[in-house]
Amino acid sequence: MRSNVTASDSARSNGDILEWFSDLRSREAELRVRSANMFYGESPGVVERLIESGVRLRSLLVLERRRHLLTQFDTGDAEVFALTDPELRDVVGFDMHRGMVGLFERPRAPSLEEVDDVRIMCIVEAVGDDANIGAIVRTAASLEADALVLDEAAADPFTRRAVRVSMGAVGLIPIVRATEWPPHLPGRSIIALTPAGSVEIGDVEVSGRVAVAVGSEGPGLSEAMLEASDLRVRIDMGSGIDSLSVSHATAIALHHVRRVLSPT
Question: In this structure, are residues 215 and 126 in contact, taking their beta carbons and an 8 Å threshold?
Answer without folding.
Answer: yes
